[in-house]
């Protein structure tokens, strides 16, 4: 019994000598060179309907094999129940059998899911003829090690899952369902290690699950902004699936669920502020410039005679919610987001200086600060930094909160209430769904995709954030104001510039008196911006 591993008659022990026949040698060489032939001839899988059967790859699975082999980085957008895991199992099995010292990490949303994939590899391995097998060194729920030095590890996706180890191939299963913070941490800590090798591979497969990092990697590949090859599988690629099958699935679930899980559309959560059909068409762009920590992203530099607004949300700076601002060009329709800032750790003492610099850079943008938390920020901005174009609001009876610096209870910035938030959400929905604003930023789109109904209001879904969305809600509230419509009108804007004192004050901007410094209102040049943010 020394020739079998731990009493398992289907597994060959290490150091067992096999006397190959001529035919077996020819078969071994053929299998090593042709993965399709290897799978069809020797790989067994379990079918729900038929039990143990031979694996006969579908055409799309053969395309997967070729794409995996020809590229270092591959991302697969795949529906439910199309044999995705089966195809990957065949590929992984082939790699460890016919390569020496080939190390693979199988990572999934949960460890049990990763181990399920490994168990399928083990099942297929056990049904191989002994002359095709490598001897077993280690064989358990989390690891396989063969006598040719090849290994497979199964683990949950995390920043520490494969840290400090060298892998020839890392496979990420259902990556869109890994929590966003884990996705980011994984790529920050593990991806540099993967890319350090000249031939190491990264395979990602998933059904879409909103506008998260899987969505971004896929869209960056579509737009030519990364080096990932794509495998795009449709439900109809599986034999036996036709329109009748589609109608049955929709009746059994829902149209939205079918569109996400089988049509593989990138849709947001259910009950989102923005309709899913609109969310799936939102487009982001790569920033043309960032600060060194990627907190501040610039999508367009300021243009002469353009009018900009900056809406500001302030966090407590405890590393939880983020302090954010969004700069929007409101000179023409559609409005356009031109700069975005998001940082969970900046203090309220440092934040005003950043706001001041960026606002001046964007032609002295009008700045609206949410003061439920940010009163200290707006006070420093006005009193210490002497920034002039701070939007003031007032309470005007039944009219509610309005932009204005005279009459009623005036304040610097705006205190968000249920009414102002409701107006802002309604207007934001209208702006986005009627293509009246260009968002540009991936983080904004990601937050919008999880901004959902919460009682009589909208908030971020559990486990997500809405800091950037709230900046857009404030901007959308501004759009509802008559004064905003005037100040964004080209002809009126020219008149404003001709007569500052008579026209600016009603729009809610603060006049702090005579200038103390002739340089106070100049626009920061691009070179100066670079020196401030990049050095």
Structural features, described:
The chain has 2 domains: 22-267, P-loop containing nucleotide triphosphate hydrolases (Rossmann fold); 289-513, Nucleotidyltransferase, domain 5 (2-Layer Sandwich), CATH 3.30.420.240. The N and C termini lie far apart (69 Å). Mean pLDDT is 84; it is low at 490-524. The chain is elongated. It has 535 residues and is α/β, with parallel strands linked by helices. Helix 3 crosses helix 4 (84-97), helix 12 (351-361) crosses helix 13 and helix 14 packs across helix 16. Strand 1 and strand 2 (8-12) form a beta hairpin. The protein has an 8-stranded mixed beta sheet, with helices on both faces. Strands 13, 14, 15, 16, 17, 18 and 22 form a 7-stranded mixed beta sheet that branches. Strands 20-19-21 form a 3-stranded antiparallel beta sheet.
In short:
This protein has 535 residues and is α/β, with parallel strands linked by helices. It is 37% helix and 20% strand.
Number of strands: 24
CATH superfamily of the largest domain: P-loop containing nucleotide triphosphate hydrolases
CA(first)-CA(last) distance: 69 Å
Q: Which percent range describes the beta-strand content?
A: 15-25%
Task: Summarize the biggest pleated sheet.
Answer: 8 strands, mixed
Helix content: 25-40%
CATH-scheme architecture of the largest domain: 3-Layer(aba) Sandwich
Shape: elongated
> What radius of gyration results from the CA coordinates?
29 Å
Mean pLDDT: 84
**CATH top-level class of the largest domain:** Alpha Beta
**Strand numbers in spatial order across the main sheet:** 7-8-9-6-10-11-5-12
Spans of at least 5 consecutive residues with low confidence: 490-524
Tally of DSSP helical segments:
20
């Amino acid at each position: 019994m020394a020739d079998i591993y731990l009493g398992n008659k289907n597994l060959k022990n290490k150091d067992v000598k096999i006397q190959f026949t001529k035919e077996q040698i020819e078969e071994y060489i053929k299998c090593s060179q042709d993965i399709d032939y290897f799978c069809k001839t020797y790989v067994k899988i379990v079918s729900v309907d038929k039990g143990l059967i031979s694996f006969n790859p579908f055409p799309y699975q053969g395309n997967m094999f070729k794409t995996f082999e020809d590229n270092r980085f591959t991302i697969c957008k795949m529906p439910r129940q199309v044999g995705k895991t089966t195809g990957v199992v065949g590929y992984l099995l082939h790699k460890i059998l016919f390569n020496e010292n080939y190390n693979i990490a199988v990572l999934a949303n949960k460890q049990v899911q990763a181990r399920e994939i490994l168990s399928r590899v083990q099942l297929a391995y056990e049904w191989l003829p002994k002359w095709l097998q490598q001897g077993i060194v280690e064989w358990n729920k989390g690891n396989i090690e063969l006598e040719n030095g090849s290994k497979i590890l199964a683990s949950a996706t995390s920043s520490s899952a494969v840290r400090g180890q060298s892998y020839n191939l890392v496979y990420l299963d259902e990556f869109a369902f890994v929590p966003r913070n884990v996705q980011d941490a994984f790529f920050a800590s593990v991806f540099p290690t993967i890319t350090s090798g000249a031939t190491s591979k990264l395979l990602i497969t998933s059904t879409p699950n909103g506008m998260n990092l899987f969505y971004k990697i896929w869209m960056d590949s579509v737009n030519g902004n990364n080096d990932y090859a794509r495998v795009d599988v449709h439900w109809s690629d599986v034999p036996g699936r036709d329109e009748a099958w589609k109608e049955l699935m929709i009746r059994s679930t829902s149209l939205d669920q079918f569109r996400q899980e089988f049509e593989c559309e990138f849709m947001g959560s259910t009950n989102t502020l923005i309709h899913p059909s609109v969310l799936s068409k939102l487009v982001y762009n790569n920033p043309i410039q960032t600060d060194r920590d990627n907190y501040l992203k610039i999508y367009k530099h300021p243009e002469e005679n353009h009018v900009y607004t900056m809406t500001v949300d302030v966090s407590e700076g405890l590393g939880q919610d983020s302090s954010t601002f969004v700069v929007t060009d409101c000179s023409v329709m559609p409005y356009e987001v031109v700069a975005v800032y998001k940082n969970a750790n900046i203090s309220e003492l440092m934040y005003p200086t950043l706001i001041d610099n960026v606002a001046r850079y964007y032609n002295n943008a009008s700045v609206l600060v949410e003061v439920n938390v940010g009163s200290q920020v707006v006070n420093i901005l006005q009193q210490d930094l002497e920034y002039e174009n701070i939007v003031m609001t007032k309470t005007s009876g039944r009219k509610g909160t309005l932009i204005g610096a005279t009459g009623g209870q005036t304040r610097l910035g705006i205190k968000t209430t249920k009414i102002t938030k409701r107006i802002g959400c309604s207007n934001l929905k209208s702006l986005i769904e009627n293509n009246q604003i260009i968002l540009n930023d991936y983080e904004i789109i990601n937050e919008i995709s999880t901004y959902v109904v919460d009682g009589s209001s909208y908030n971020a879904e559990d486990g997500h954030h809405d800091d950037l969305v709230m900046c857009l809600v404030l901007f959308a509230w501004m759009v509802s104001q008559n004064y905003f419509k005037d100040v964004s009108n080209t002809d009126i804007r020219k008149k404003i510039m001709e007569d500052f004192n008579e026209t600016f004050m009603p729009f809610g901007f603060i006049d702090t008196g005579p200038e103390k410094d002739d340089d106070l209102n100049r626009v920061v040049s691009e070179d100066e911006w670079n020196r401030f943010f990049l050095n």
